[in-house]
């Protein structure tokens, strides 16, 4: 009887440890893509034995962290209406998910060094496709410049977000200002050649 009563508590403790480990993995990899298991365990407040009890290797842990971040980002994007004006849709996407995208990029950098390229592309395919489709639609509607490939503009977005995340971490940029700075930079870069700044289309 006592062991049956204890099991839910043990399961809750185990789940709590998993959540702490995954959160610590994101934090550590965001600072250093080569962060060790020992560093992650210390940041999570658990021992290496506990960490390895949930994740059999660093590779498994990195992949699990990336999956969780991408799932969280997908959940946020699922709640957005990206069917309207592409300019405003891209702004909404940036403002709602830039921090998750920044964290995903950091963990993705770590994943690229340990996971097969095909596996990384598969994990990242859905969010990348969502951004690419939005930019392609904007190009087709004349809202975004069409003289550069959509995937180039999507990569630009990710690099700007990564730079903003670095500046926030280093204290050079207030986190509250980051979404606006990212949006204005990316939307300006997307503006069709010859369009004036005051025009509503980008």
Automatic annotation (TrEMBL):
* Assigned keywords, A-Z: DNA-binding, Transcription, Transcription regulation
State the Gene Ontology terms under molecular function: DNA-binding transcription factor activity; transcription cis-regulatory region binding
Q: Where is the HTH tetR-type domain?
A: 15-73
The record, for Gene3D superfamilies, names: Tetracycline Repressor, domain 2 (1.10.357.10)
- Which InterPro entries does the record cross-reference, listed alphabetically? Homeodomain-like_sf, HTH-type_TetR-like_transc_reg, HTH_TetR, Tet_transcr_reg_TetR-rel_C_sf
Q: Summarize which parts of the chain are annotated to bind DNA, as ranges.
A: 36-55
The protein's matches in Pfam families, at most eight in alphabetical order, are given as:
TetR_N
What is the protein name stated in its UniProt record?
Answer: TetR family transcriptional regulator
